[in-house]
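Hi Y.,

Following your request, here is the sequence exactly as I used it, all 258 residues.
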Amino acid sequence: MTRRADIMPNPKPAADIPLAPDTLDRLRGASTSTIATLLHKKGFRTCYIQGVLPLSAGARMIGPAFTLRYIAAREDTDPLEAFREPDHPQRVAVETCPEGHVLVMDCRQDASAASAGSILLTRLEVRGAAGVVTDGGVRDAEGARALTMPVFAAKPSAPTNLTRHHAIDIDVPISCGGAAVYPGDIILGDGDGVMVIPRHLADELAAAAAPMEEFEAFVLEEVRAGCPVIGLYPPTDPATLDRFATWQQAVRGEPIEG
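Below is the corresponding structure, written out as tokens. Let me know if you'd prefer a different format.
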């Protein structure tokens, strides 16, 4: 069946969607929770990568996606000698992931084997990758935790990837943790997990994130001071926005009119 592009379009290639110069820096200060809410407002509800968390506490990550797709391994295609092949897709992905990008691996949400180990992850760090996301396992997890490059995975898993995963495609659309990831989508990670930001929305969400974070900081102070949430969050009481404006002036050191 021929698919009509006007009904079911694929995203444009990343090269056709340039980002504003400050978009990644703006998103660097945003939380995944904020981005999840902003995407929800735009009708996007499946952009959270399920079952994936950082190996190290305090990890934060931002960068365009570079993808690696695995299918199920099979005994005749995945002997240990497969790693000797110079064009093995897993190894090629490690050596071609662009600087500043996040390597995102599709392991079909199967963490019974590793998708990479500390040696390959260290190589990615040395090459300047912004991070790694996998819905599979990671072996040599202690070594992976010691990296400065953030690693987000389903869990530690000792078996080599060849026991369950056959690396087959690089820099193609994938599904990771139930979320679609297209090459060049923006990947944001923190302690709550990983969000996939469709590239064509990145500039818009970057501009909206900081004001939302600022308002939520104000709300948190109000709640700590004993204010009830009804009328405050969301700000359905007009007085809330008046107090917010006064709070903003105080935070920015601006004179407050009496």
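Residues 45-197 form a domain with the Glucose Oxidase; domain 1 fold (CATH 3.50.30.40).

Thanks again,
Q.
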